[in-house]
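Write out the 3D structure for:
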Amino acid sequence: MTATSGLLARGARNPGSQGALRHLNQERLVEFLLANGPSTQAELARGTGLSTATVSNIVRDMAAKGVVSTSPVTSSGRRALLVQLADTGDIAVGADFGRRHVRIVLSTLGYQVLAEEELALPLGYDVPSALAEASALLDRMLAEGGHDRESVLAVGVGIPGPIDRRTGTVLQGAILPEWVGVNLRDLENAFRFPVVIDNDANLGALAEVTWGANRGARNIIFVKIGSGIGAGLILNGQPYYGYLGVTGELGHTPVVDQGVICRCGNRGCLETVASTSVMLESLSRSTHGPASTSDLLRRGRDRDPAALRVIGDAGAAIGQAIGNIANVINPELVIIGGPLVGLGEALLEPIRRGLQHNAIPIVAATTNICVSSLDERAESLGAAALVIQNALAGLE
């Protein structure tokens, strides 16, 4: 029996007894905590449909047994009790691969980060070599933390590209073409652990509703703005993957009639006018030399006119694309992630303007737009959350 399945003993002897009902209610709370992360007792009651009194009694009993731990917090201006799963010794690993980095996170099932490190990778890196480096980094992190390999449940891997969920294979269209054709078996051979895989924007969305300040939001669009522009969707509290898993390709939404040809083969896609690469190219014309992301951030925060124009044009186009999606799914929240979150309102204001011009008034008025609360950590934390949620299989 794994530590995960041992959180609660399964299968009551008498399924009609009060003890059996209490046991089933305990399982509901454990499953909710695995899926949603640390939650207040009020959130547990809303999420499971149990009464607040029932939740309070069960939490008290599980805390006494060491299944959960509790701590006082303030929620909506009121004192509350935060509940999280106790440390069972199981470890979830999240690994996020970007254009020039891999970030690895080790987490408990209670969503507590044990270790976190980032390793720089060269632009256009060789994928097998990068996987070998990431595997060595993970081995070192486990050894330094005194963790046995047997304690690792799985490694969640985030990749910036569409993934065929039927086969776990990275498809054509990835912002990093080196990854195209890489599949689940390749990753498992490299890490020597079970692996779960997902698109980085999907993982960013998952992180926001489990780790972030927006924990518990049920209908969100997470938009990652980088060299590509992708969106992760949470609908009715669940990640949305569509038929194949190819969802949220916001960067390939046409926004300019007769625009330039995109790498996807279409014309006038959002990525051709609003990716960080295009923004930096535009900004470079005003500096008579190459501009970096740090230049764009600095000049945007300093209210430099050229930078604000570049950011404003890109933001309005992004808002236009978001507005088209918002009219279809009516999100409560749009969260902007990626390397430009430090721009804050300089980026959010034109995105809001683009949304207002393209969404119907009631949707635009009720859709909140904010930057990620997790910065560059979102995708790796989302990868760890994916592993934690897959731990539910151990309880079924």
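The chain has three domains: 5-85, 91-205+380-395, 213-373.
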